[in-house]
UniProtKB/TrEMBL annotation:
Segments forming a coiled coil: 38-72
UniProt keyword annotation of Coiled coil present: yes
Gene Ontology cellular-component terms listed: BLOC-1 complex; BORC complex; synaptic vesicle
Upper lineage: Eukaryota, Metazoa, Chordata, Craniata, Vertebrata
Family, similarity comment: Belongs to the SNAPIN family.
Domain of life: Eukaryota
This protein's name: Biogenesis of lysosome-related organelles complex 1 subunit 7
Keywords carried by this UniProt record: Coiled coil
GO terms classed as biological process: endosome to lysosome transport; intracellular protein transport; lysosome localization; lysosome organization; regulation of synaptic vesicle exocytosis; synaptic vesicle exocytosis
Gene Ontology molecular-function annotations: SNARE binding
Organism whose genome encodes this protein: Indicator maculatus
Length: 90
């Protein structure tokens, strides 16, 4: 995620720099297509970043659910008088 944020910042910086260069040029260069390409790349980076954040949040919730279920099962086993044969007690 950090690299996605850094990439987005670099793209923003490049787009700003291209606009500044275009304004400073005595001969009008059409840099708009390049700026649009950078903005499109930025949009894709933001999309990937959102997908990664959603996946990370789902993994966090899944990990929490697994830990909760593990504790529940351990409590059930301990309440039933210990672990079944063949499983080491912890």
């Amino acid at each position: 995620r950090e690299s996605q944020v850094e990439l987005r910042e670099h793209i923003d910086s490049l787009a700003t720099e291209l606009c500044r260069i275009n304004e400073d040029q005595k001969v009008a260069l059409d840099l708009d297509p390049y700026v649009k390409k950078l903005l499109n790349a930025r949009r894709r980076v933001v999309l990937v970043n959102n997908i990664l954040q959603n996946a990370q949040e789902r993994l966090r919730r899944l990990n929490h659910s697994v830990a909760k279920e593990t504790l529940r099962r351990k409590a059930l086993l301990e309440a039933a008088g210990g672990y079944p044969q063949g499983l080491p007690g912890k």
